[in-house]
Amino acid sequence: MGAYLCIAMNKVPPSVSKRFTVIVHFHPLIRVLNQLVAAPITSDVHVQCYLEASPKAMNTWSRDTGEKLLPNDKYVMQETQINDYSLLMNLTIKNLDKSDFGGYICQSYNLLGKAEAVVRLQVH
User: Fold this and answer.
1) Measured at the alpha carbon of residue 61, what is the angle toward residues 115 and 121, in degrees to the nearest 5?
2) Buried (b) or exposed (e) across 27-49, using 16+ Cβ within 10 A?
3) Global pTM?
4) What is the mean pLDDT of residues 24-44?
5) Count of beta carbons in the 10 Å neighbourhood of residue 91
6) Distance from CA of residue 100 to its chain's centroid?
7) Which tens digit of pLDDT belongs to each residue from 48-102?
8) C-beta separation of 22 from 1 below 8 A
């Protein structure tokens, strides 16, 4: 994807140029840099997924138990845009207790498909 410039010229001036942009659509792709995260009880922990998708995707977090996570006092969710087609999905889990340990799933959906990845949270 990107901007391209096509220049046509022959021995008769002037040369002619045309700029165009190529946009490629593809299903979401997710990478997890740290698949296993350890943290002590009562601490706050940060987990992250790297996502690429075009067109833009709908992104969610859930537990491996099937529970969908919503922003509240316990869970803070942020997305950091990197460029037109990639971003970081960030989840902060506050004040960890025993029930917070286990799997967290980052999920992404667009018109062309879906992807998901798991981050496991364990006691440090």
Assistant:
1) 100
2) bbbbebeeeebebeeeeebebbb
3) 0.85
4) 95
5) 20
6) 22
7) 999 999 999 999 999 999 999 999 999 999 999 999 999 999 999 999 999 999 9
8) yes
Which residues are bridge partners to 64 per DSSP? none
Number of H helices, E strands in the chain: 0, 10
Tokens 């087609």: give the residue. Answer: 85
Q: Is the peptide bond before 55 cis (omega within 30 degrees of 0)?
A: yes
pLDDT score recorded for residue 11: 87
Choosing among 3.40.50.720, 3.40.630.90, 3.90.320.10, 2.60.40.10, the CATH entry for 27-123 is 2.60.40.10
The phi-psi region of residue 2 (left if phi > 0; otherwise alpha if psi is between -120 and 50; otherwise beta) is left
Helix (H, G, I), strand (E, B), or coil: what is residue 100?
Answer: helix
φ, ψ at 42 (rounded to 5°) = 75, 0
Report the C-alpha gap between 14 and 87 in whole angstroms: 43
Residue ranges covered by each domain of the chain = 27-123
